[in-house]
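Human: We require from you a standard protein entry with sequence in single-letter code and fold as tokens, and nothing else.

Assistant:
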Amino acid sequence: MHFDDRLATVMRLPASGDALARIQYRQLVDLLGRLPCDAQSDMLEAGLARVEELAAHIPAADRARLLRQPLQPITNSRLLAILAADEPDVATAAITGARLQQDEWLKLIPELPVRARGILRHRRDLEPKVEALLERLGIRDRGLPPASNPAPQEVEPSAPSLEDILDLADESALEAQATASPEPAAPTPGVQPAPTPSVSPITPDHAAEWARAAAAVQAERPRNSEAGIGAIVRRIEEFRRARQSHSTFEVANDDPRLPLGDLATTAPRLPVTVDFETDQEGRITWADSAYAPSLVGLSLSAHEVTERQTLPDQDMATTIRHRLPLRAAHVRIAGAPRVAGEWQVDAIASFDEQTGRFLGYLGRLRRPARPRPHEARSGGNLSEADRMRQILHELRTPANAIQVAAEIIQQQLYGPAPHEYRALAAAIAGDCAHILAGFEELDRLVKLESGAMQVETGDCDISEILNQTVARLRTWTDPRRSGFALPVDIDLNTYPIQVDRIEAERLVWRLLAALAGSTAPDEILELACSREAGDCVVMRIALPAALAARDNDDLFDTPPGERGQTLSAGMFGLGFTLRLAAAEAVAVGGALRREGNDLHLTLPGLTAAAASHSTAVNHSR
């Protein structure tokens, strides 16, 4: 046999403090709330009495918070009746979490206070009979209390009545009845009629504007009754106009009001990315829930922007037919404002894991970035550069703090930490270091393009730097059978340049690493050096096939969603890396430009006399 003595155990708990009282209150509500409505016992009566006793010592806000916690739904109508008669917050929390049967609701509702019935009317999960009972009782709940004054009598026609004046106001807003010059009603036996004033308007509590108007009239009643009546009429009209203007604003925009009552006029935020799925024909069958009604059924190939095709001989329909990936394709959608306009499409084919049957495409729509000039500028607006550097400083400060905190946990500087936490901290520290490195590159680009940074001058041999950089990249390119093909005579010829060695190594590594990361397996890029007229050294590098298909603007631009590759000098993508390399080349007196399918890096060279002097100095060192 099993005995349920949980209620007795809770009743024995001493409520000696605030914390214990709250615990006992919560446990009693949980236990009593799940008992059947027809349960009868002395312990039940004692528990209900204890709930009322504890309610007198626990603030209403705390009781409402305890009732809103995930408890067992209240199924006991006796407990619900006690809680519904409590403070408004407590009653709201209790009625919201109650789960009674239809018969129990029908029996309880007539016994509930009027305020509790109003709270219950906001629920949308009640049975039709329960809602009908609430509506039937609501006729009495929503009516005004009976007038305590006797019925009015007829007044002389020379003086207009206040009832005629109040008819000009909005009855739904004021919900008031006014009587003028009342007459005595039939006397009740044994009850003396109370003396009535000549004019006694009834002012509702919720109509603050009407209350102020009436108070002003009572305080400053003019001698001429017509002037007082006119002031009341004017105030009523002002109240009606203000209410209509407020309701118009609330219908058009339900945003929260600002402190001065104005409404925010910000433009609606448009989506930047939308994920989607297509069928075998390239027709969208699923999209993000917020935009699915506007995109489902849309054919990608039918909305392609042909003038912005990357490969003129391969349109989107051909790409879909061959099950090839969609890369930076452009479509123009006409429809709802949130999805209308031009989009960039990136998607890959999806196949069934068991049968290998083509299912469709999985991809993402992105808003194309605004075109930006890729040429490095020698000068610029210093104020814009200062603002950008300030933003970078504000971003760098929290990143540094996160990195320091992660290193403290990973190195256990303040005490032992679990290995799982140390592993997570090490990963966070690495991510922060990667982010800070990206901020450094962005800061360097801003300084170079604005002219706020000058690159150190010096001299070095570009052929030696090329040999070292290509050798370092072979650890990544050799397994893929890709890389760079250096000229045979690169070791025999020297190409001295007027660039500091550290700056030259950084520039060459940034350029070659970015291009090597874009090569396909078995793809070799030709690399050559030559000296041109004017003592300039030109390094020619063939572009990978994936980059040769881009135009000049796309090559030096960073489209949305592009990320750093496996082998890259930066975290902002290939376009940003090439733009930074172009800015560094301009800073040292050179240039980086595209000619056909090659990149030409021009650097200032040394004259023959300067080169021999530099060589002699290096040997003396």
About this structure: The two ends are 99 Å apart (CA to CA). Residues 419-450 form the longest helix (32 residues). The CA atoms of residues 266 and 297 lie 31 Å apart.
